[in-house]
Amino acid sequence: METVILGAGATGLVLALRRSLRGDHVTLIEKETLPGGLAAGFEVEGTWLEKFYHHIFTSDKAIIQLISDLGLGDKLEWFSPVTASMVKDSIYRLDSALSVLQFPPISIINRLRMGAAIAALKLTANNAYYEKTTAEAWLNRWMGRAAADSVWNPLLRGKFGDYAPEVSLAWFWARVHDRSAKLGYVRGGFQLVYNRLEQVIQAMGTKIEYQTTAQKIREGKNKKLIIETSKGTITADKVISTLSTAITLQLLPTLPAFHRKYAAVNALGAHCLILALQQKVLPNSIYWLNITDTSMPFLAAVEHTNMVPANDYKGSVLLYLGNYLPMEHPIMHMDKEEILKLYLPALQRINPAIDSSWIRQSWSFAAPFAQPVVTCSFKNQIPPHKTPIKNVFLANMFQVYPHDRGQNYAIAMADTVANMLD
Ligand SMILES: Cc1cc2nc3c(=O)[nH]c(=O)nc-3n(C[C@H](O)[C@H](O)[C@H](O)COP(=O)(O)OP(=O)(O)OC[C@H]3O[C@@H](n4cnc5c(N)ncnc54)[C@H](O)[C@@H]3O)c2cc1C
Q1: Is the torsion defined by CA of 35, 40, 42, 48 positive or negative?
Q2: Which CATH number describes the domain made up of 2-54+190-265+375-420?
Q3: What are the domain boundaries of the chain?
Q4: What pLDDT is stored for residue 255 in this prediction?
Q5: How far apart are CA 244 and CA 346, in angstroms?
Q6: DSSP states of 271-320 as a string?
Q7: Which ligand 1 atom is the nearest neighbour of the CA of 395?
């Protein structure tokens, strides 16, 4: 069977592996120059670094198993880095029950309410009530307005902008419930996992066409599917698209009812400015700093080298300044010098000593359709893996609900969809 898979991110690569193991002749079509998709890296001082900050959690069983199966288990290391929040120009640790109880911006009663609400989400299963309630309404009610407004509501607002009041509690529940304090990282970069997968599937006969953009999928003669790409056409018996639903719908023949139902889901783009610096920026070796002040031009400052030693990058301190933005937002399209000009004064609010002489190098990365907006109606708008076009399948991050997108869920979904093709 000739199987064409669109996209060589985590989902596409694992689908290629599973289908090759079943004897399919697989071709992967990928518009970029290397595997890994949103989790792909670039080289900093000879070591891969993700374009967007990445780590995994102890609950991420599918990716932990895959890393081990690929013989990279010895590279997966676990860290307990510090997470903190910036509230009105002050920085407070907020990553454990104890730190919640000591969280200065709110009263002791509100700290107890914050702790109880988070514990409730951690200890309960997702349910119909969570699915029809918004995160904001639930937090305001059960955590109390003062506690919710100190951190969580501004973070929802920072991440989802005007969509924030519509975000489902089920999405927020999954973020709290699925995540561990311990964070896993593949020393040398997650790119090592994707490079190894590429090696394995190529050895099994999978062809990977890089720098090739899928442009159309149509039905041909004798039940064959024709995939038009920027480099010509390919014929297949089955096609699996791992591209976002909106992009996949543009490739398929017009399916009015399917388009109406599934194209309406909103999504945001992701942007990261990465700085390589000569010294540490965040105080107290903080790895992850949530910014709750919406006047700041970025949502999170992530000092990667406060988790992974800077020695891995010849001593460079690596800092991500991350944002989720509408895809048409100027930052998604500005050049890195302009963005740096905008971000540097904000960075000086975090560390007044920093100036441009600290910065050795910088990079800017933007990705469209990087964060689905999970509202209470989202569940009914998850497209099925089988599309109305026979033998065309869909497997993407819009289908891992209620979990937030993540490599683990991409890999688990790839296993499910691979089984559906038999
Ligand atoms: C800012 C950010 C932070 C994240 N942090 C984490 C984290 O800490 N831990 C974690 O586990 N996950 C994290 N994720 C999520 C994780 O990266 C994704 O869930 C996962 O990589 C999705 O894999 P995928 O293969 O489904 O999709 P993608 O990685 O999006 O792969 C799709 C592929 O299709 C290609 N493509 C697109 N259009 C075309 C076309 N027309 N023709 C051919 N190819 C095309 C793309 O280039 C891409 O390679 C993060 C994501 C973002 C954006």
Answers
A1: negative
A2: 3.50.50.60
A3: 2-54+190-265+375-420, 96-178
A4: 85
A5: 33
A6: EEEEEEESS--SGGGEEEEEE--TTSS-SEEEEGGGTS-GGGGTT-EEEE
A7: 26
User: Hey, whose CA ends up nearest to atom 29 of ligand 1?
Assistant: 37
Q: Which CATH class is domain 96-178?
A: mainly alpha
Q: What is the pTM of this model?
A: 0.96
38, 64, 198, 243: which to mutate for ligand 1, most atoms within 8 A of CB? 38
Q: According to the model, what pLDDT value does residue 30 have?
A: 98
Angle, in degrees to the nearest 10, between helices 191-203 and 10-21: 30
Q: Is the pLDDT of residue 173 over 90?
A: yes
d(CA 6, CA 4): 7
Cβ distance 41 to 320 under 8 Å? no
Number of other CB atoms surrounding residue 289 within 10 Å:
24
Pinpoint the alpha helices (H) of 33-95: 61-69
Q: Decide if 83 contacts 53 (C-beta within 8 A).
A: no
Coil, strand, or helix at residue 380?
helix
Q: Is the pLDDT of residue 253 over 90?
A: no
Segment 264-281 mean pLDDT: 96
How far apart (Å, rounded) are the C-alpha atoms in residues 133 and 84? 27
The closest of 255, 220, 254 to 234, measured between CA atoms, is 220
Question: Does residue 113 sit in helix, strand or coil?
Answer: helix
365 C-alpha to center of ligand 1: Å?
13
